[in-house]
Design goal:
By secondary structure, the chain is α+β, with helices and mostly antiparallel strands. It is built from two helices and five strands; from the N terminus they run αβββββα. A five-stranded antiparallel beta sheet has the order 1-2-3-4-5, with helices on one face. The protein is globular, with a radius of gyration of 17 Å.
């Protein structure tokens, strides 16, 4: 009985966390009279709850970007890019990463 109660409590906490964290964020970077739009999509990481895998896509004045970021919430300096699309040279601004860290960590 106690085991079932614990599993039920974990399910409730997990459901509450999923609802409180949006699956997608949008950020607009102003560049003079132009802009760069950034989209951050959360990909659940069941293997390590302290790491969040994010798909980050940018398009606009600076060009295009697509990549997967393994964001380590416990130790930010241990975050790393898992994949960056071929040919993309645009850098992701710190404001985009900071927004993702505020929402998902």
């Amino acid at each position: 009985m106690l085991r079932k109660l614990v599993l039920f409590a974990i399910m409730i906490v997990s459901a509450k966390e999923a609802v409180s964290q949006p699956m997608q964020l949008e950020y607009r970077q102003d560049i003079e009279m132009y802009h760069q739009d950034w989209t951050i999509k959360y990909i659940q990481n069941d293997l390590n709850p302290y790491d969040k895998v994010l798909y980050i896509f940018g398009d606009g004045k600076l060009g295009a970007f697509a990549g997967l970021l393994d964001m380590n919430c416990a130790t930010p300096r241990n975050s790393s890019w898992i994949w960056i699309g071929a040919g993309y040279t645009t850098r992701v601004p710190a404001d985009v990463i900071d927004l993702a860290r505020k929402v998902y960590c």
